[in-house]
Amino acid sequence: MSSKASSEFETIRNALQSEIETNDNLAEFIIKVNELHKYLIDISPGLSSHEKEKYGIDITNLVQQIADKERLKEQVKPKIFQFKGKERTSDDTRTPAGDVPVIEEEMLHNEITTGADIVLREPNCSFLDLSRCKVSSGPNPAHPTKAGSLTFHRIADTVINLQELPFQTGSIFISECQDSVVVFNVPTDGHLQVRLHNLRNCKLLISSQHPQTVIMEGCEKCCFHSSTQPNIVIRDFSNINLENDNTSTATSCQFLDFDLLNLDTAAIRERYIHD
Questions:
Q1: Is 177 in contact with 202 (CB distance < 8 Å)?
Q2: How far apart are CA 152 and CA 224, in angstroms?
Q3: 55 within 8 A of 5, measured Cβ to Cβ
Q4: Considering 73, 88, 123, which residue would you say is the last residue of a domain?
Q5: Where does a domain end: 22, 49, 73?
Q6: What does the alpha-carbon distance between residue 263 and residue 275 come to, in Å, rounded to a whole number?
Q7: Is residue 167 within 8 Å of residue 188, measured between CB atoms?
Q8: Domain identity same for 50 and 180
Q9: d(Cα 23, Cα 48) in Å, to the nearest integer?
Q10: For residue 47, what are the domain limits?
Q11: Quick one: 137 and 191 in the same domain?
């Protein structure tokens, strides 16, 4: 079975990769990648450990390929926001629309923004090196951008509360994040790719009115709010057996009740973020 199943998977994968390269129906590709991952779960009992790991990486690469193409389609280069200088206090307010953030072409590795209030206004942004910050949604435009991409990298003790996203379709990538709270609503008529890489001890509320896949890798001791369990489909690529980890016994994440505090950013920070 292994040889036949492997051949079929590779045929589907190659065809999908070719479609992504030559066509622009990105929303349809997201659905097809999810279907391919479901197929991989179905055939996994007959695959070797090496094949399971290899094909899991293939699917991750397809997701990244779609995200990259979305970015090129919009012809917008994501802005990277990072603050220079001394640590900020929690009384300071920093907004990407103003002149306080420094927009860098490359990631800086030795500067950390501490205690800032950041308002998200741009549909294509990367936020780096945040500690004890609050990131919240700006005013929702009447006609949000069709596509966008948000990246959060090296985040600690921070509340990300994005109840209104500035785009309908796109990707959210969070990596190297610990001891933080993440809240966002999936647009009703949109499609999101959500990837979580190396999160530790984080609380997440990803609210969606339709099934939403969340791709995880290298995450530990994270919990999703139990109210989201009916529509959140977790694909844990750290799980070499490729089992669906929507269970309360998964080591990388659980679905648990925790107080949402009326989604008030300041209250969430006071309750869950420890100085």
A1: yes
A2: 18
A3: no
A4: 73
A5: 73
A6: 20
A7: no
A8: no
A9: 33
A10: 2-73
A11: yes
Tell me, yes or no, whether 120 and 223 share the same domain.
yes
Are 158 and 260 part of one and the same domain? yes
Paired tokens of 273: 């973020």
pLDDT at 79 over 90: no
Residue-level pLDDT at 251: 55
* Closest CA relative to residue 168, chosen from 64, 36, 70, 37: 70
Residue 230, pLDDT above cutoff 60: yes
Per the CB < 8 A criterion, the answer to whether 264 and 228 are in contact is no
Q: Report the length, in residues, of the chain.
A: 275
Q: Are residues 140 and 169 in the same domain?
A: yes
Phi-psi region of 232 (alpha: psi -120 to 50; beta: other; left: phi over 0): beta
Which of 14-18, 50-54, 196-200 shows the lowest per-residue confidence on average (mean pLDDT)? 50-54
Q: Tell me the C-alpha distance between 203 and 222, whole Å.
A: 6
Residue 106 has pLDDT above 70, yes or no: no
Residues 187 and 134 in one domain: yes
148: domain CATH number? 2.160.20
Examine the pLDDT at 16 and tell me if it is beyond 80: yes
Same domain? 144 vs 208: yes
For the chain, the farthest-separated pair of C-alpha atoms sits apart, in whole angstroms, at 62
Q: What's the mean per-residue pLDDT of the chain?
A: 78
* Domains held by the chain: number: 2
DSSP for residue 39: H
